[in-house]
Structure formats: C-alpha cells, structure tokens
Design goal:
- The structure holds two protein chains of two kinds.
- By secondary structure, chain A is an alpha+beta fold.
- Chain A folds into two domains: 150 residues, PurM-like, N-terminal domain (60s Ribosomal Protein L30, Chain: A), CATH 3.30.1330.10; 159 residues, PurM-like C-terminal domain (Phosphoribosyl-aminoimidazole Synthetase, Chain A, domain 2, Alpha-Beta Complex), CATH 3.90.650.
- Chain A has ten helices and 13 strands.
- Chain A has a seven-stranded mixed beta sheet with strand order 8-10-7-11-9-12-13.
- The radius of gyration of chain A is 21 Å and the shape is globular.
- Chain B is globular and about 65 Å long.
- Chain B is built from 15 helices and eleven strands.
- The longest helix of chain B has 16 residues.
- Chain B folds into two domains: 200 residues, Rossmann fold; 144 residues, Rossmann fold (3-Layer(aba) Sandwich).
- In chain B, a hairpin with a 3-residue loop joins strand 10 and strand 11.
- Classes of the chains: A alpha+beta, B alpha/beta.
- Chains A and B meet through strand 12 and strand 13 of A and helix 1, helix 2, helix 14 and helix 15 of B.
C-alpha cells in the first residue's frame, strides 16, 4: 500500500493511515536518531552540542502560510526552516533543534508534500540543525489553503553574545546583500504566473554567516533579519528601539535591477518588500570594515554593504538620503502590500 | 537620459529667485505625489516653491456612492469582483471592499483587465464584475476588456466603471477660482494616452503654464524648473520634458478604443461634486457589459465624512496637515478620507514619507525634520 496522490482527511486521524503518511512521506527525508526515538519530545544533548554552553536558552516559533508553496528560489519548506533558524541566529543563539508542525488540507498533493519534506531536510542540513519532533494534522478541503507549516526552534546562546541595549552615534548598519528579491519573486509567481522573471527568492538559513561574523569577536550590537516588513520595517523599528536617528543611504542599498523594475511596475517601494535571507547588523564603527569583509567571505554575504549609520539626533526617526540628493522619512509599511493602480 | 540633479536644483533656485512671491505648482497624478515623496523631492525645493497635489489620484476622487455600489455588487452571491489593489481599503458609507472580502465577498486584485475576462470565460457559473477606476491611463484597458468580452460573447462579464477624464476637472478647478496655482506639472502616464497637446487649452484659456514630466526626481525637477522659468518670464507655455515617452498627439489607437466603448457623461468627484463631461459612460452598443444596467444599480447620495478635508487637499486649497483629522482620527490604518487610503493619495504620502508619523513629527515638514 502506498500513500494516494492526494492527502485524505484520515491522514490526520492518528491511526494507521497517518503512520503510513509519516513513514512514507514526512519522516524519510528528515530522519535522524533523535526523531527516530519516536518519543513525544525530542532531546538534545547540550554538553555535546555546545562546548561553550551559556546559561540562556532561546526559543522561537513562526507560522508559514506562503502561497504558492513553491516559487523561484525556494518553497514553503525552505522558508519554514530558514525563518526559524534565522530568528535564533540573529539573537546570537546556535540552533539546536526544530519542532515541525504540518497542517495539510485534504486533497493536497502527496508529491508536493514529498518535495516540501525534501526541501525541509536539505535546508536543515544546510543549517546544521535537526528536526527533532513534529506533529501532523489534516483539515477538510477548503478549510485551509494547501499546506501550513509551523516551526519552533530551540537554541542556546554562547556565553559571550548579548543583544546590546544601547548603540553609539556612528555605529553602522551592514546588510548581507540585495533586498526585496523574496517578496517580488513570490508576488510575481502568485499574481503573474505567465511572466518569465529572473528574480529568485533569497530564502536561506543565515546562521553560518552570522556565526562567521560573531566568531571574529567584532562588536555587533544588534542583528535582525529583514523579513515581512522589509528593510523599512526593520530600520524604523531600530530607530524606535534606540530612540535614535537611523540614516539610510539609498545609493548604498543593494537592489537588483530586475527587482527594482518589478517593484516599480507594481507601484511598490523596494524598502517595504519582504526578504527571507537578509540580516542587518548594527556594528561599532571601528569594526565596520572588518565585519563587511567577513560577510563578503561567506557565500550569502557576497554583496554585503554598509547601508547607513546611527546619527546623533535622539528622535527615533529613520531617514533615507535618496539617490537624487533628497531626503525623506522611512516608516514601517502598514499591512498587505497592494499594487497601485497606475 | 538622466539629468544632473544638482544642476537642475540650481536652475530651479535661480528661476525662483527672480519671482518675488511664493509659487504653488500642482501635480495632477498620484504617481507624481508618491514619486515626489519617495525621492525626497520636497526637501530639494527652494523655500518659495511648493508642489501641491491635485485631483490626480483615481482612488481619491472616486465618490463614496460609487464605492458603495462596488461593495454591494461584490457582496452579491454569484459575483466575483476584480479591482485594483488600492481600491480595497477605500471607505464607502457602509465599509470597504476589504471588509466585504472578510464577510465572504469574492474579491480579486487586478493586474490586467484581461485576466478578469479570462476568469469569466473559465468560470461561466460566476458573474464577473470588473470594478474599474482611473483616468486615461486605465480606461483603454477597461475598454479592451469589454471588446474582448464581446468577441467571446461572454454573458457573465460586466464592468462597473467610474472612469474619469482629467481635463474637465482641471477646468472646473480653475473656473471655481478658489484654487491658487501658478502652473500644472502634468502627468507623464496619462499624457502617453492623451498627448501633451491636451493641456494646451489650459495655457490658452487660463494663461496657465503646463509642463508634462516623468516620474524620476530629475524629471520632476526639470518640470518644476521649466514652470518656474515660465512664471519668472511671464510667458506661460506648454512644454514637455518627457518627450521620449509622451508625444504631442498621444496614443491615437488608445484614444479610439476609449471613444468606441465609452461616451462622455457627467461624473461625481469626491469633494468636487458633479462635473459635466468629466466621466465616461459605457455606450449603449455595449450595454450588456455595463454592470450598472445589468444589475440595475442606483448610486445613493453619500455625504462626505464629517471633518474630512480631502476635497480641499485634492484641489490644493489646504495641505493634509491642515486637516484636523490628519494623523489623529485619520491614519493609513484607519483612513477616513480616500486621500489617506491609496498609497498615491496625498495624505497617505504625507503620512508615510515623513510628515506625520507620530506626535513628535506631526505637522513638521520633511524639510524641517531633516534640515
């Protein structure tokens, strides 16, 4: 007996059908010794995983509902692992284990699920993290859109990294590459499926890149991945957090030409568009060049750039110095990114 | 070709210095509004030069009664309603399309009008309604959709159109006499269809300098420099600083398609009221594709929301910050007036790009804030 080509409601019932789905479709790709124990929790051996074990445990959780589930450069599985790994990594935590929750709609393609599981496994492998526990549910056709994934991640912080509560005038903002690729790739795939575009999502686990920088001992005060609210959301939050003026230099922000054009076509501001593989680091000015160099050494940081700095004013505003020599305020985007009429 | 911004600023400054009074120019295009803020243009203007936003954002000028009609149709059981993304949040008297969607209305965001036609063809059991707004930039696309639906003999496709025509509205503004502007920065996009010559009557009949400009900072600066020079020289003219795209006669094919499907009609504009000849009605030959006639719709008389000054904002009589609701009761998260709804709307652009983010910054211009 093999799993039918579409998911049945019974696949979520906890019975033999479910075992079959888990054994044939869900578990094979992500198999490891912890998951293999088949217990209701996954265990991590802290001492063997983290030699410089600090005293703090980091826990994070995120839900993934992207449609379509596959798009140029990635899929929902790759995002589900990368997003959670990145949320740990930007807090300076080393990801140790992932809990994977799948919600499938009755009728979802089994072959698609296999592809997603393979992608989850490949991404986890790339990030050096294991899926150590999980849960699968099936809801009736029409009650959910294909597949939803929730991942929780647990990590530990090496004793010496802490997010700084203050920052200094002159601290710089460094990003590891081009912005807005993810949001535009997904939007174009969803809304204009017939359009051929070279734009690919940047979705990637950033823990390797981040570790590479942190290991150098450079003074990194704060890190965050610029996801749904784009670079503008991140920069506006940063200004608010430190009650300082954050100045971004438009000219310095890496944006691929095709991505900029696509955003312009739809009337979107590239600063507002989502990323899934971009981290912004706030770095002490003296360490800026060093961090930039370290980032560029990593494959995910080839196009890293210094994109702004913290200015003296204590007004909590993010200012963009535009390419054409003007200046404006950057605010967090409001909600759904909607294309403009003309 | 990219022009040197510093040079253009100098040119604008030099021309403005010859004018002993303040200068207010009006752009009549939502994309100009957004581009002006996005590029930080306002911070680059000389102290005596202002750029006001006119009635050029199609979402902003759509009357509340028209929004109500769209919401009503979208909520009809068999209807799938296609419309432009920024129409979703525009408040009517009984909520907006976003709210209707959460209540079960089938609403799809439009990227191409032909997608709606294809959808109708593929889903014969549904009634597909295209909620179409906009000026000459979007009207041809609506007309093409109707022609295509006719060719395919679709019985389940119709258009709820509140398209508008730009020139009668600008004339009405000037005839009203309440609007004090020194010239128009004419819209690059609409002019691709209309042709730059369309603005000639404003120069001839009102002595109003008119310059067609594109949407980059340098193009807008070039346009403003030209306008200022015309005022300084007291020689109002029509000029086109976007000639690589905009031709004097415009796009004749698109004009013909509009004329084939639509005929001039009076239209209600938010805040401006009814203006003769400023709207477009589906011609009788295509009546079956007119949602108003197909569904027997009657637009109600919707009062403007109390305290909302969108009408004055889009006629250049006040700035968003002059409105008592701006940034308080009216924000992009909870818009009262349509100018706050569309990202093209002047209130939304003021708010987003730095003229009203929170208490500390409300009512301070970008210029002050980044000086």
């Amino acid at each position: 007996m093999t799993v039918p080509p579409t998911i049945l409601l019974g696949h979520g019932g906890g019975g033999q059908l479910m075992d079959q789905l888990l054994d044939e479709v869900v578990r094979p790709h992500i198999a490891n010794e912890i998951l293999g124990e088949g217990l209701d929790s996954g265990f991590v051996d802290l001492r063997s995983e983290v030699p410089d074990l600090g005293s703090r445990l980091a826990l994070t959780i995120d839900g993934y509902v992207v449609t379509p589930w596959k798009f140029p450069g990635g899929d929902i599985g790759r995002i589900a692992i990368s997003g959670t790994v990145n949320d740990l990594a930007v807090c300076g935590a080393k990801p140790l284990g992932i809990a994977l929750g799948l919600i499938l709609a009755e009728g979802f393609d089994t072959s698609a699920l296999k592809e997603i599981m393979a992608s989850i496994a490949a991404t986890a492998n790339e990030a050096g993290v294991k899926v150590i526990t999980g849960d699968t549910k099936v809801v009736g056709r029409g009650q959910a859109d294909g597949i939803y994934i929730t991942t929780a991640g647990v990590g530990v912080c090496p004793s010496d990294y802490k997010v700084a509560s203050t920052a200094d005038t002159g601290d710089v903002l460094i990003i590891n590459g081009h912005i807005a690729d993810h949001g535009m790739a997904v939007m174009l795939t969803r809304e204009m499926p017939h359009l051929k575009t070279p734009i690919k999502s940047d979705v990637a686990p950033l823990n390797g890149l981040i570790q590479h920088v942190l290991e150098s001992g450079a003074t990194v005060r704060f890190m965050r991945d610029a996801t749904r609210a784009g670079l503008s959301g991140l920069a506006a939050d940063l200004a608010h957090r430190y009650a300082r003026r954050v100045v971004l230099e438009e000219k310095a922000i890496p944006v691929r030409r095709e991505t900029r054009h696509a955003a312009e076509m739809l009337g979107l501001d590239v600063l507002d568009v989502a990323n899934e593989g971009k981290v912004v680091m706030v770095v002490a000015r003296d360490d800026a060049d060093r961090v930039l160099k370290l980032m560029r050494e990593h494959p995910l940081g080839e196009h890293a750039a210094i994109i702004g700095h913290l200015a003296e004013q204590q007004d909590g505003i993010c200012e963009l110095r535009t390419t054409s020599g003007g200046s404006r305020i950057v605010q967090k985007p409001y909600g759904e990114q909607l294309p403009r009429i003309c | 070709m990219k022009q040197d911004v510093a040079q253009l600023r100098n040119r604008l400054r030099a021309a403005a210095a010859q004018v002993p009074h303040g200068l207010s120019f009006m752009e009549v295009c939502g994309t100009h509004t957004v581009a002006g803020f996005r590029t930080g243009l306002h911070a680059m203007l000389p102290a005596n030069v202002k750029l006001l936003s006119g009635p050029g954002c199609p979402v902003c000028v759509t009357a509340q009664g028209d929004i109500d009609l769209m919401v009503d149709v979208a909520l009809e059981a068999k209807v799938t309603f296609f419309t432009y993304g920024d129409m979703l949040k525009v408040p009517g008297t009984r909520g907006n399309l976003e709210l209707a969607r959460s209540r079960g209305a089938k609403i799809k965001v439009l990227y191409s009008t032909l997608d709606a036609v294809k959808y109708a063809q593929a889903n014969p059991a549904e009634q597909v309604v295209l909620g179409a707004v906009g000026f000459e930039t979007t009207t041809p696309a609506t007309a093409v959709a109707i022609l295509e639906a006719q060719k395919l003999d679709l019985a389940n496709f119709s258009v709820l159109a509140s398209h508008k025509v730009l020139l009668p509205a600008l004339r009405a503004l000037l005839d009203g006499g309440e609007v004090q502007v020194n010239g128009f920065l004419c819209p690059g996009h609409a002019s691709i269809i209309l042709g730059s010559n369309a603005f000639r009557p404003l120069v001839r009949d009102y002595g109003m300098p008119c310059v067609v400009a594109g949407f980059e900072a340098d193009q807008m600066l070039a346009g403003m420099a030209r306008l200022t020079e015309m005022v300084a020289d007291a020689l109002p003219e029509l000029d086109n600083v976007y000639p690589q795209v905009v031709k004097p006669e415009g796009n004749r094919v698109a004009q013909a398609i509009i004329a084939k499907v639509f005929e001039p009609a009076p239209a209600k504009w938010r805040a401006l009221g009814e203006i003769a000849g400023s709207g477009l009605r589906v011609r009788d030959a295509y009546a079956q594709f007119d949602a108003v006639r197909r569904f027997g719709l009657v637009a109600g008389d919707a009062p403007e929301p109390a305290g909302c000054r969108c009408g004055e904002v889009i006629t250049g009589r006040c700035t968003p910050a002059d409105c008592g609701l701006f940034g308080r009761k009216c924000t992009p998260l909870a818009p009262v007036g349509p100018c706050m709804v569309s990202s093209e709307g002047s209130c939304a652009a003021w708010f987003k790009y730095g003229r009203g983010s929170d208490n500390a910054t409300t009512r301070r211009s970008a210029k002050e804030m980044v000086a």
